[in-house]
Structures are given as structure tokens and as C-alpha cells.
Specification:
Layout lengths: L4 E8 L5 H14 L5 E8 L5 E3 L23 E3 L8 E5 L5 E6 L2 E5 L9 H9 L8 H8 L1 H10 L7 E5 H5 L2 H9 L5 E5 L9 E3 L5 H9 L4 E6 L4 E8 L8 E10 L7 H5 L5 E4 L6 H17 L5 E9 L2 E8 L9 H8 L4 H12 L1
Parallel strand pairs: 1-2, 1-7
Antiparallel strand pairs: 2-3, 4-5, 5-6, 8-11, 9-10, 9-11, 12-13, 12-15, 13-14, 15-16
Amino acid sequence: MTPRTRVAVVFGGRSSEHSISCATAGGVLAAIDRERFEVIPIGITRDGAFVLERDDPSAFALDPNALPEVRDDGTRVLWPESATSRELRVFDADGSVRSLGDVDVAFPILHGPFGEDGTIQGLFELLGIPYVGNGVLASALGMDKHFTKSVLQAAGVPVAPWVTVTAADRAGDREWLRRRLASLGFPVFVKPARAGSSVGVTKVEGPDGLDAALDIAFAEDSRVLVERGMTGRELEIGVLGGRDGGPTRVSAVGEIVITGRDFYDFAAKYLDAPGVELVCPAPLGEGEQFELERLAARAFDSIGGEGLARVDVFLTDEGFVVNEINTMPGFTPISMFPRCWQQSGVAYPDLITELIALAR
């Protein structure tokens, strides 16, 4: 019998998206093919401690009244001491040390800073452990909206006009800053440069709302984007890296249809709040479908993407405008990324298997 591949599923983390990471991990733990893979669940607490977690998907269900989290149970997972070993060990709460055996691949299901931004990818690179998803540079670029837009713009990919604001900008010539922001027109979206899941994002209809929105965004990050609000359809498309040197692959297109909210916010994404419908496949003309597929692959390739991503776009009267690239998109079973791949014929468990194969 072929030995099972040993997968370290890593989740939680220090970012404000800790609970979403846990919920995503719950979905993966429930769906991963146990006949092919042996799972080592590793949680990262909000303080950054690596603990040996329960292999229990139900413990990480996304309950709006009690969001899941990694709790410090006193264990400490120890990564290999060098790139010559793949052995994981754990300090148990009683102080004893035991081996968890070798790990074949890491599956970091982490959203936001200290996980989706190239930091943990750098750890795995140093240790020589294959891992699911994008590398250090693509992860760092995809996490930072300012640099994502800068790279996409240089690659000829259309993006929404924006202004990046630092704390120094805000403390300096406020009239100059006001004029710069007003040049975007209204409405605008104010968002942290390095946060996801719509955390810290505010839609602002006029200049009187800017200060409060900036306060919310600066609570999440030291740099903030103010971005022109785009009028058009909101579309999302999944991307997978090519196999064996082949071309980047794209999924069916999904559409976010907003009927009773200002925008697709955290509550709508994860807490099943009303006013939003996810449609997949989105109704598009043949030419539109082809152009969006081409644009999504180009955006992914322009940041040096590997593994997976979700490309978010607006379809405006002037054409497609790329909003963001998510290098570790929401991956719960009901999230848009797996739903679009399901529509393309790749079931959720098979998508997990494919991502591990790409990593190896």
C-alpha cells in the first residue's frame, strides 16, 4: 500500500482574519482525501504560538455568535532544525517532547499579515518544505494592494485609480491631501493596504466621511488606499498554476449581485448576511468570457503567481478593471473560489488534492 502523503495544515495566525482562517481550515479538514493524505493540524494562536490542534473540522465551524479560533493549549510545535530534516516535534503541555514524524508538504491556510504576505512562505523556503500556494514575492505583492496595483499597471492590466495615504501624509499638508483625494471623485473606498476579507474597508459617499473611514483603515495598517468607486458588475475568477510547465488555468466566472448592501463586506462574505447573491457561472458574452480569462491569467503571471489565486474585477462601461488579486482566497466550501472550480468540474476535495500536487 502506498504510504499517505503527510500534510501539515497550518491555520489561525496573528492577523484580524484569524477566525476566517480557522473556518477555512475546518472546510479543508473535512474534505481532504484521508485515504491519500495524513493530516497534522497546526494552529497559530493570535499571539503567534504554533500549537498542535485537534483534527476535528466541527471545532472550526463558522458560527456568527462564536467565531472559531486557535486557543493556546500549552503545546508547542517545533519545526525542523535545518533543511536536512522534515521531522516535526511537539512539546506537550506536561513538558515532554515527542516526534510527529516527517512532513511532506505544508498547507498554509492563512489570511492577512503574518501568513498570506510571504512571511510563513519564507519560513518554509528556509526549511526546504514544499508548500501550497504562492511564493514569497507573489504573496507579498498580492497582500499589499498598493504594490499589486503598481505591478499590474506596469504590466498593462487596467486597475481603478487610487491614492495611497500614509500617517505622515495625513499629518502633513491636509489641504493638499484633500485635493488629491477629491480628484478621485466620489464615492471612494477606503481600505487598509494589507488586509483582506473586507476588514477595515469603508465606502465613502462624500468628503465629510473621509476622516472616519481613514481612522478605521489606519487601525488595521500603517498605509491606506483610497480608491475610486467603480460602477459595474463585480466578477471573480479562480486561477490555478499550470502543471508541468503548462499554462495558467482559470475557472468559471462568478458574480456578486448586491441587492441590499453598500458593498460585499465581511458579514456578507462569511456570516451569511442578507443582501448579496453569489452567481456562478456569471452570464457573459463569449468575447467577454475570453477577455476576462486572458486578463486573470495575465494578472496572476505578472506577480509571479504559483499555486492559486482569485482575481476580482469590475466589468464597467469601459471594460474590465482588476480590483484585487487574493493569493490565498477564501476557501470554505461555500466560498467563491471553490464554487467557481466546482462549476468547472473540479470538486472541492479534488481541488485540495490538486493544490497539494502543485506544491510537491
